[in-house]
Each structure stands twice: as C-alpha cells, then as structure tokens.
Amino acid sequence: CSPGGDALPLQCHPTSSKEAVPSFSPPVCQPSRLSAIPHLRPAKVCQAGDAYVREKFKPQARRDLEKEKQRLQNILATGKDVEEPKVKQTLVQTKEDEIAEPDRFEELVNEVQERKEFLAEMEALGQGKKYQRIVLTEISQKMREMEIIDKKRSEEMREMMTKDTTGGNKFN
C-alpha cells in the first residue's frame, strides 16, 4: 500500500528506455481482492465434461485357472496338496542351472517389458493416469541406457573389424 493508504497501481509505465530486468525478490504484499460473485459452474457444465464418466472395469486373470483346477482335484482326490513341493524344487534347480551372468541389455529389455505390463494392469484397474508419467519416464531412461550400450557395442565391433582387416593385411 502507498503511504496515503491507497492501493498501488496495477501497471506502471517504464521510466527509462532500457528493458526492465526481472528481479528474483519476493512479490510485494498486496491484499487479495475477492469478487463478491462466486465463480461456480452450473451443474450442466460439470456433467457435460468427463468428470462424471467412470472408466469401465476390465478384469484380467491373475492366476492360471487350469493349474488351480488341477490343484483342487488333487486335494479332493488325495486329501493333500501334492503339487506345491514339486514346483518349488524345480524353481531351485533352474536357479542353480543359471550360472551364466545375464547381459545388461537383456536385463533392460526385461525391465521395460515389466513396466509395460505394470502400466497395462494399472490401466485395467482404472489407475493408468496415476502411474503413466512415472512408468513412461522409467521406460525412457531404460531405453536411453540401451542406446548407450548399443553404441558401445557397435564401436567395439568396428574396432574389432578394423583390427581384423589391418592385421590380415600385415600377414599377407
């Protein structure tokens, strides 16, 4: 407020021909002016938008129903759940057999696929908009890392090819 108690002007004319340099100081404290008329939208305008539209539920099977049927048949026939211990043993054996270290590029491909599947599940549950930005950002980061790995591999291949061709000429 000015010393006389009046409000400051909303627009000022520049006093010099130079352009004003924006300063990063906090804004001047001005009392907020609220209008007497509330800014409410009519119900028809609200209903015309997509605020009241629900996304349709799209169920997805989260488990293998055939496997569940076989398990239930075993329980009813023998009174025991026989199949579970066998499954656990096979999983342990496959982990021991997998000694070779997986390639980072393949890991990234798998991670991108997992994120796509997660996003599809969230969209099916009606939560796609909530996770879309996060998941797409992660996917783009993985893709960038894949591009870097691909460039390094191609450079290594070029170096190997040039060494092979120059080395072959020396021996001829």
UniProtKB/TrEMBL annotation:
Residues 163-172 have a biased composition (Polar residues). PANTHER family: UPF0193 PROTEIN EVG1 (PTHR28348). Residues 150-162 have a biased composition (Basic and acidic residues). It holds the Pfam family UPF0193. Residues 1-25, 150-172 are annotated as: Disordered. This is EVG1 protein.
